[in-house]
Design a protein that fits this description.
It is a single chain. The protein has a single domain (5-99), classed as Winged helix-like DNA-binding domain superfamily/Winged helix DNA-binding domain (Arc Repressor Mutant, subunit A, Orthogonal Bundle), CATH 1.10.10. It has helices at 21-29, 34-40, 46-58, 60-84, 86-99, and strands at residues 5-8, 11-14. Helices cover 68% and strands 8% of the residues. Strand 1 and strand 2 (11-14) form a beta hairpin. The protein has a two-stranded antiparallel ribbon with strand order 1-2. The chain has 100 residues and is mostly helical.
Length: 100
């Protein structure tokens, strides 16, 4: 049986690529088709995309838990960065408001 996904450290990658499984899963959960996802990731074949999505669906509880953990970790890092330099983030927010 061909393997499409491999676990590397705390994440999952598509075999023989630098594309993370969470990138494909995010697109899939956002309603994109496998064909659309393959177009968004030209380094992957349609077979690799289908294989990775099949892996996700077969291991959904584990992968979803991993995605939640990564999201929480990212949010923690983002909050820490905001706490270290609140003036920068205030200027960024002001700039976004003025651009709109």
């Amino acid at each position: 049986m061909k393997q499409y996904v491999e676990k590397i450290d705390d994440g999952y990658r598509i075999v023989d690529s630098r594309v993370s499984l969470d990138s494909l899963v995010t697109a899939f959960l956002g309603g994109q088709s496998a064909e659309s996802i393959a177009q968004s990731f030209p380094t992957l074949s349609l077979e690799q995309v289908y294989g990775a999505l099949t892996y996700y669906l077969a291991n959904r509880l584990e992968i979803d838990a991993c995605l939640r953990h990564a999201s929480a970790e990212f949010e923690s890092i983002r909050r820490s960065a905001r706490d270290l330099d609140p003036m920068f983030y205030q200027k960024l927010a002001d700039s976004r408001r003025n651009a709109a």
